[in-house]
Amino acid sequence: MVAFLLCFVLAFLTPHLSIEAKTAVKSAVKNECEGYPSPLPLIQYDDSTEEFKVPDQAAEFFSRLESKVALVIFAGVGKAGKSTLINNMLAVPHECGMTVSTSFKPGTRGVWIWPTPIQTSPDAVVLVGDTEGLGAPGAGEDFDAKLSTITTLLSSVYIYTVRGQVSHRDVTQLQSVTVMAEFFEKKFKKSLPLPALAWAILSTNFKAPDSSHEYIEWVLQEKSDETEENAKYNEVVRVLKKYKNVASIDPVTFFRRPHSQLDTVELATTPYSSLDSKYREEVEKFKSDLLAANIKPKPIFGEALSGKRFLQLAKDLCLEASILGGTTESPILRFVAKQAAAECESGYFTAMAQADTTNIALLHRTHKSAMNEAKVCFFEKAFGGEKNKENRVQWDLTEGALSSNFSVKAVEANHSVVSNCRHSLAENIDRMYERKFTVAAELAHFVRLIKAEFYAECKASIHDKAGVLQEREREIDQHLLSVKLREGRESKSRYEKRIVFTLVFAYALNFVVQKGLGFNTGLVFLYKLCGVMYLSFSFIASHDEYLVKFLDIFQSLSDVASPFIAAVSSLLHPYIRHDPFLVGAFEYLYVPIFSCMAVMALNVVLSVLRWCCCRK
């Protein structure tokens, strides 16, 4: 009653009130609506750009809606009473619910929804939507067809509202819906089904028929005159007759006048509780039948629309609205191809999300396999397969987008893998420094091991492996060179001592044997050679690059002689191991002793050969 009085004041007394009084009345109405949410714009039309769009409020609402969504749309010509019926059905005061206009201009622009979802199952909700009246003066070209296309493809139930009686105009207004119904019935029945169609006849002044089917048959009669206009009308009638409906919803619902003594302007300010009881019974029965109908969310390619998917579908429809409103099949095929692409893209992204990004080669194989599966999925779902031009164009766009996405993902994955390889190599190099190698041969062996380990464990490409290794290879080589030089300098004195010992030992032995026994030992060559070697080695040791090459050659010679020296050492070791002096002497004298013995043996062989030659 309070709401009724407030509305009465607003409607009749506001023009005569002062500014303060007007503010007070508006504040009272605002307080009256505090317990109700505000209607939410779902689709808006920009007159300047002639484009449909989904406003930010709707995008935020559906982004947070996790349940599956079923939309019940109320459509019809302007001033049919759609908004009034919705408010009465939801038991919401007119000033708080859908906009009800008492002027000649439309009250609803675009598509609006009541933002309180009606829970029909644990994971599904129903939303009620109100649309702008069809056939409004000044509407742009194909506006009604575009709006009907959007609402038909978004809704699960399409309720066409008529005031008084279904007329020729009402049937004609449904032409765009019936064109799509015929087209989708043939080609997209399974992938993108149309909504159930029901009629709401408001403010009837006749007795409701016993059967709604009897009324439909009487209203939807074909015209006998053979004109082009009648031919189009008859085609619409034929489609509407075979349009399938939800079994538990009566195809036609009749509503008497809300109040027998109030006109339209007065009804806009009359609270629901003050309307005729018979009318309220009809509204309540209609609401209960609608909710008991087990209205299911719109399935796209077999999958019910979630809030986010519903939002994306609405955006796609708004984007294509400028071309989807006509009767041409090409735009609709393109729209369905886009939906098929979106459906199959999800499988691709799921496979890529599960792929091992640490193995670049495996990631490439997964991308190729998932792309092939997405292609097969797309051409199975999109009507016409690869023969359809719209499908081929759409797949080229989809393939390009997926490949571009993969390229970015591959670059990121490769960067991560290369970073891991670089980190692993750095750890091995740190181990190399921690070992503090003093022998170049051991360090070189360790370097070969860490390189082999790096190539085995790093999952990057060969080119990237080589690049990462090249970044640190100079550092490794410099460290190896420094160890070699340090080893060479440390060994310099030891090598010089051995050369000097060999020289002195050879000279002394040659002097004793030659002077005492008169026997030519050939050791003169040895101690002269040692003198030359001493000078040469001193020159080599003063140049780093010569020293490194000399050490490599000497290491090779040592590798050849080491088995012999090890064998002799093992034979002599039992005899000298108890005497430290003998052990030390052997360390410094085994080279001159073996050298002298080798030269003397060679000299004896040469002497025998000369003697044999002289006898001959």
UniProtKB/TrEMBL annotation:
One of its GO terms (molecular function) is GTPase activity. Pfam families: GBP. Residues 50-294 form the Guanylate-binding protein N-terminal domain. Residues 1-21 form the signal peptide. It comes from the Eukaryota. The chain crosses the membrane at residues 499-517, 524-541, 588-611. Keywords: Membrane, Signal, Transmembrane, Transmembrane helix. PANTHER family: GUANYLATE BINDING PROTEIN. This is Guanylate-binding protein N-terminal domain-containing protein. It comes from Palpitomonas bilix.
